[in-house]
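User:
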Amino acid sequence: MLCWGNASYGQLGLGGIDEEIVVEPRKCEFFHGKQVCDVGCGHRHTAFLLEDGTCPKFPIQFYSRHSTLCLFLFTGGQVFSWGQNRYGQLGLGINGQSIPTPQIIQSLQGIPFAQISAGGAHSFALTLSGAVFGWGCNKFGQLGLNDSNDRSFPALLKSLRSQRVIYISCGEDHTAALTKLRGVFTFGAGGYGQLGHNSANHEINPRKVFELMGNVVTQIACGRQHTIAFTPSREKMDSFGLGGNGQLGTRSTCNRKSPAPVKGPWCSCNSPTDTDSERGCFVKRIYAGGDQSFAHYCTANKLQNIDDVRIQDPYRKICTLNEDIINKWCNHSPGRLPQEISNEIDLVFSSASCLNGSFLSMSHPDHYSTSSKCSGVDMNQARLLFHRLVQQDHPEIAQQIAASLEKNLIPRLSNSPPDIEALRLYLTLPECPLFSDRNNYVTIAIPFAKSLLSLKEAPLKVLGNWWSTFEPRVFQRLVELYKGVVVYLLQMHKMGIPSVEQRIFTCFLDTSLRLLEILHMVSERAGHIIQYDKFYIHELDDLIDIRNDYVTWIQRQMYPMGHDGGVTLCRYPFVFDAQAKTTLLHTDAVIQMQMAVDQAQMQNFSSMFMPAVESVNPCLILIVRRENIVGDTMEVLRKSKNVDYKKPLKVIFVGEEAVDAGGVRKEFFLLIMKELLDPKYGMFRYYEESRLIWFSNKTFEDIDLFNLIGIICGLAIYNLTIVELNFPVALYKKLLKRKPTLDDLKELMPDVGRSLQHLLDYTEDDLEETFCLNFTITEENYGATEVLELVPNGEDINVNQSNRQDFVNAYVDYVFNTSVAPLFECFYAGFHKVCGGKVLELFQPNELQAMVIGNTNYDWTELEKSTEYKGEYWADHPTIRLFWEVFHNLPLEKKKQFLLFLTGSDRIPILGMKSLKLVIQPTGGGEHYLPVAHTCFNLLDLPKYRSLETLREKLLQAIDHNQGFNLA
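Assistant: Predicted structure:
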């Protein structure tokens, strides 16, 4: 042990020496043959802890004291303080009153600390990821907060947050911080040069000591009014500040305002075999006190690990989850846990600090980059270690963890954590398999979600930012966890819940759904971390009455004060899949229709007594002629009011006796859409490559026809009928007020879309010369070519590297918006006359498309199961068995042709195959007759074929010769 400085009170431990001042390092013979573990320097005294010394009964991981206060950092992460509190240096929110017994600093709860330090009347705490908190006296700016106001609560030094601080030391009125990147910052009182800035000025902000730049400083220590820094790679120790008692070790009692070398036989641990090194000192740790300094060293023949405060000492840190401790816990014999392991598990899983300090990322960006945008957590490591810890071989470990989480951790989580580092457990804990265990939903997963939802706006926003950086599979696991909780709760409710527990159930369900709602918003804002359909809970149709839920939701909107407080799933529409949404839309249609009918009946009743009141029909009646179906329909719809579109639709073909039980209505939609989309009208442009259509901006037809098509599409949805409408998804995006993108152009015009993508992806510098484009578009209409400007003076603007995205955006906007604006507006207005409302807004564009034209989610087995039979046919009739054997062996294209032949469309309703309700009936005649499709009723007349070959031949012949709509 080497020591120097003031020895007037024996604080150097040199015995009865004559000098009161030792101006250069001197060996302390008392420690010869003894192993020193730690040193604590006071104003006029020094304490040493030897290797054979006793340890405190409570697990203290870090201890710091000054002449007026003491700080303790416990293994569980709590920080305690006591002593003088004149300036608020205990961090308890009060000042003036001294505290004789240890008090926990509540405002630091949950933060994973690496170190604490006490100064004259100020204190500091450093987190594992380099955040620095200071409190107490700030007369000289020693808290580094850009002012000189004292603090009775810990305050974050925002200026050091990004500096990767790994060690901090406090003097009487100044502070020094060492960073992972070798920098030394000092601030506070500088009257004696103790800040090392070559001046006697005070600093109220952290300032780097430039004369130490270029040195790999591994240790710093602050005395009362001096500072020491050690650079082992250069065999160098520097000191600066007050030197009147020789505490600088420069063989002088002069003050130093900038770093000066401490004279001593310092050696580098990189060259321990040199001759000089054998006689030299390998410094293990440096210490500074009031006016004295110490260097704990070893010689080459007894070389020990040299302390580097940039590296966390595993024996002086809070307890965190890592491979070593998990291996220790899991390597015990199965059965009852040893008390030591049980205590450790309880310590970690009862402490927010311990969990927040676990699974820290060591790769880029590492945990020192922690911010409101970066969590500093390695989620893959968290999942791996949690799954290694919670195993079937050790159920006792899982039980101990569950008990600690349930009783000690979750109930104590704060709704306003003191720092973002106290939020990490909200990311990592759900990776624990215990959360996914249905037995722990009520005791762990739901209370955890409730704590999360109780967070104030600022921390909740930080969590949202962190979630948005998740890999899709990690984010998906969290979503699946709480989807599972919702399903579990609904299953329990369906089985029956006592009325006394109904309120608790409602709270649990609402908590889980609200968390899913937040995750859904995060995913949407981040550009869909996972696809929207990953939030769908497909079991809802079996677990709740969706129609009744919707009616209840509507009633609560109309009468918000008069409900029982139960949860309606319609408040959380993102969990509804396409089929559930369709059920909602149909329910809404039925309600609207019933309201329209009731209104009509009320008006008709009034007309009986009041002649001035005109009677109305409770249905929307379309009387049309087949040969003039478009004109007749337009005439009726022009005279109809918006309320009429909400009525049930009845169609009558002039001169035909058929009663519209649904089949006539279906035939009407098939015929009128075929007519309206006929090229003779020139209303739509057909794209050969994609086989899709889009509005033609050069049409000569009445613009009202587009309004009619919009109404027809709306009526089709309202009346549960799919129609042939080969538009791209862009149409449905626009109906839902969403912007089409380049991907939509690729769907409509694949060649053009690929060319524009190639333009965006081009990396060479000669883009302008290679593509030779300007902000124009060339169109061909009726044999004539026309060049149109995409922006004002577009012909004079060449497309280059800087504006190519603008060009692509303008091109897409022209095709889907600008060029067809008046036509689409009429279509949009017509569609929303029928289908406008909140329910429509629940749909995604491709779901709305499936509502209008059906989808291709074929399930041929379901089609067979849902088919009904008439007459002597039944499921096991020989002809029926032959039919299904032939059908299931057909290739996909032939099966789709069969659907077209039978139903008028090769697509299926959004509700699936079961909603097609195919009907097969026998027909007279012999085997030489072909099957006949009654398209309007999904009815197939199937002769009684006796052989597989004949049935296959006749069926293929029927569907191959089907042209357009085969209406019988």
